[in-house]
Write a structure and sequence with these properties.
310 residues, alpha/beta, Alpha-Beta Plaits, 24% strand
């Protein structure tokens, strides 16, 4: 039987030196001395923040924490300390680090950790700015309102051998960024406003349809019915409606989803009105993105009323 490995959920910190190969090519001795000193600083800060150094091969360092808050606080402390030390070094000899943090499920064997959780942290480290910190959404969800930091949503990032992309956030360490979330929140707010507008339009259209239906009930004796002889199939003996596909004129593909929802909601609402017949959407979808007149559609679909927004 295959060995059952111990698994655990942990906060993973992956750090990597920027331009390490370039520095080594210029001065191996000085570079090894510098990175050894920085590694000691990082190890000390990791312990202070209740973490554990898992491995530190070459110019990399891998650590784990039981708390995402501790991991992010440690990463910020590391970057601030390294920035202070770099100020005392010639610019061409400065060594910066990128740090990535992920909360993920890992295999724990002999004090080493393996798995997708580690790979994601390494990917986040690779896209972080020199001197910066990047976290996954699983980590972000744990710290958003717990630390005096800001965050910038970087979108979805692909990770080798992991089928689903990972949402990434840049940590904003400047004091004036505290409490801000740039990118994702504004996107969500825009969608929410669109959803509210969608709901209003749907209610408006349904209300208009009901008013029209009441007018029909009171004035039906003055309505001249359509000629049955001109129809492929006769109309039912009650008012029939055809809801044509709505047109997206905003040039924003995101609105297609809401527009489709408008159509479905209106058809459903009209179909619940007693004494009416609503032509199925499958019959009216053929007119999507096509030019036509109301009269032509009336003859083709055998409807008393046609609803359309263009």
């Amino acid at each position: 039987m295959p060995k059952d490995f111990k698994r655990k959920l942990t906060a993973i910190l992956s750090a990597d030196a920027v331009g390490y190969s370039r520095l080594m090519a210029k001065d191996e001795t000085a570079t090894v001395k510098t990175i050894s000193g920085y590694r000691e600083i990082m190890a000390s800060l990791i312990i202070q923040h209740r973490g554990r150094v898992v491995d530190s091969p070459g110019d990399n360092l891998l650590a784990e924490f039981s708390s995402v808050v501790d991991a992010v606080q440690c990463a910020v402390a590391v970057q601030n300390e390294i920035q202070t030390r770099n100020a005392e070094v010639a610019e061409n000899r400065r060594m910066n680090f990128r740090i990535g943090i992920n909360l993920g499920d890992v295999i724990d064997e002999d004090d080493r950790i393996y798995g997708d959780g580690v790979n994601v942290a390494a990917r986040l480290e690779a896209i972080a700015d020199p001197g910066g910190v990047c976290v996954s959404k699983t980590a972000f969800d744990q710290i958003e309102s717990k630390l005096p930091l800001g965050y910038e949503y970087l979108g979805q990032q692909s990770v080798k051998n992991i089928p689903k992309p990972v949402d990434a956030y840049r940590v904003l360490m400047k004091p004036d960024a505290a409490g801000k979330v740039i990118g994702e929140k504004r996107f969500i707010g825009r969608i929410s406003r669109r959803a509210a507008l969608a709901a209003f339009l749907i209610l408006f259209m349904v209300a208009g349809g009901m008013i029209g239906w009441n007018i029909y009930l009171h004035q039906s004796k003055n309505i001249e019915p359509a000629s049955v002889e001109k129809m492929a199939f006769p109309l039912p003996d009650k008012p029939s409606f055809a809801v044509l596909p709505f047109t997206n004129i905003s040039n924003d593909p995101e609105m297609d989803y809401f527009i489709s929802g408008f159509n479905d909601t209106l058809i459903t609402s009209l179909s619940k009105m007693p004494g009416t017949f609503v032509i199925a959407r499958s019959s009216t979808d053929v007119y999507k993105k096509r030019s036509f007149t109301i009269e032509w559609t009336h003859k083709r679909k055998n409807s008393h009323y046609i609803s359309m927004i263009r």
